[in-house]
Amino acid sequence: MATTLLVGLGFLLPAPAASAATVDTGSSYVLVNRSSGKALEVSGGATYDGARITQRTRDDRGPQQWQFVDSGGGFYRIKSRLSALVLTFPSTADRAGLVQSADAGRSGQQFRLAGSAGGDVRLLNRASGKAVATSSSADGARIVQLPDSGGADQRWQLVKLDTTPPTAPSNPRASDLTCTGVVFSWSASSDDVGVAFYDVYHDGQLMKSVPGTDLSAELTVVPGASWGLYVNARDAAGNVSQASATVPISVPQCQADTEPPSTPGGVTATASGTTVTVRWEPATDNVGVTGYEILRDGTVAGSTSGATSFTDSGLAPDTGYRYQVRARDAQGNRSAAGTAVAVTTGSSCATALCSVTRVTTDTELPWGLTTLPDGQVLYSRRDSFEIVRLDPATGTKTVVGKIPDVAGTDGEGGVLGIAVATDFAADPWLYVMHTSSTDNRVVRVRYTGGVLTGTPQVLLTGIPRNKYHNGGRLRFGPDGKLYLSTGDGQNGAWAQDLTSLAGKVLRINRDGSIPSDNPFGTAVWSYGHRNPQGLAFDAQGRLWEQEFGNSVMDETNLIVRGGNYGWPACEGTTGSCGQAGFIAPKHTYPVAEGSCSGIAVVRTGLYIACERGTRLYRAEISGDSLTDVQQYLTGTYGRLRTVEPSADGGLWLTTSNYGDKDSIPYNSNESILKVVLGR
């Protein structure tokens, strides 16, 4: 019979029988010490190798969540759901402190679960044979190893966590709509434990959270807004339901206004090469001017949301144009257009953007786009799940196939990003990210003879999906690896959970396997993202990322291996963004001037396509910074979704103006634009 020395008593007693205990390797647990009543956790929520393991009052948050990985022979490795690192004793000495480290399968990282009285377990380390124990009853006390005595300080209760999300709320409805508020109601969700909160959104932006006992919320609205309201249920464990159906509302104005603004005066137009800058003096209004429309030869060429200047790019050389400006107010009243001002462009392009040509239109939403080695373009239709080939020379479109097993989300799910590798001609795989009925996933399918052939190979599954926040961009890096952006699935906690694929930039090999140099031993490359979509590599091989904020600011990030970009603790530079360990964005944009989706790098320019902001930004990449940020096409083509490099050193640009917040196919009227660049 095995014996063990009881520390401080000076005599030998039989060790408790080490009967084996089993766990569910597909579940998460909190480990509660029987002596202290405290939970085992990663100290300070650290995600780095070597972080100390301590105890603290149980709250079931990420630092206290653990999964068991079967090592065989009755032993398990115990992995942190927060960091994806495993519990490790670095030595076999008594009172050696427990840490977390990368999973190498070493004996110091393996534990036998020995049964104890009352259903507790003792965690016996394979290398030392000693038991995991608490060193005191205080919060923050170090977790150590001691000879196995079976004492209460060595016994742990394994509390299985709730991992089942509530059902989607039903019967959403709006009432009592005024110019400043609305009551939004729904029928209760069900949950195996209980609904703790309901989170109310409009168009992907969180508006309000209410207790799970409430089935309605009083919301503040913006006069004149057209929004889609919906609600998600959330339980105490943080599991989030799929969204309810969307309820559209059109908010009335607070007062009748039929008086148009005054006509803007002082209009000037100055040419610089093939670009014209128009300036004017502010108009006045009895309620307030909300924006301006700029007319070129009698047709609207663009708009501003209040700025009194506009840059019109991509014009013909040596050509005369006439510009007028009119003001508008919140109720759509427009002033008369002012006196036309004539200007003649120069003989050559002198700015970054030289010309824009509408190559084709589509009644579907073009989402992902990539150029093949022969110059042909492939793009995805989000809601009909089709892949289309576009001939840039003629504008001819041909459907080359439809991706199977795709599902919409009554929001922003469907067929999203597409990509091809640099050796596509020799190995013709098309890589696709899409939503299914259960998750978001990445597949690849052969493109031969001008059509998609065979059954797609599934490369990566288990990326959480929801009505919004699905991410979706794919990009091959100069290292030959496939990078992809994933949204947080409308569950901000997932963005900080390293065992979840949501709210991340992921990196996989082209066959779906995990590269050996990934920072956490999983597909995760960086984390703490809300809804990233744009990915682009610069000439130095660095990865830039574009990310939607909630309601304050969007951000452009320079992605580093293993980096934490802060969501949901911070948005852009607000909230807790100054906290140690969070990486700050390289540039931010007010959401009203941003909501940017796609990015592309051409030479030293980073181009950013924005939806709500209805503009294309260009920023100069200067070292690790973005400088000389310029705006183009403001209001000219509406909401811009995707921007991609073209084969001739220009850009492809797609719009997303109609039906982009539902899953209904062929209810759009979109453009695919070819942009010629000057520098």
Describe what you observe in this structure.
The protein has 679 residues and is an all-beta fold. The chain folds into 4 domains: 158 residues, Trefoil (Acidic Fibroblast Growth Factor, subunit A); 81 residues, Immunoglobulin-like, CATH 2.60.40.10; 77 residues, Immunoglobulins (Immunoglobulin-like, Sandwich); 325 residues, TolB, C-terminal domain (Neuraminidase, 6 Propeller). The protein is built from 1 helix and 54 strands. The protein has a 4-stranded antiparallel sheet with strand order 6-7-10-11, with no helix packed on it. It has a 4-stranded antiparallel sheet with strand order 18-17-20-21, with no helix packed on it. A 4-stranded antiparallel sheet has the order 25-24-27-28, with no helix packed on it. A hairpin with a 6-residue loop joins strand 32 and strand 33. The chain is globular and about 95 Å long. The N terminus is likely disordered.
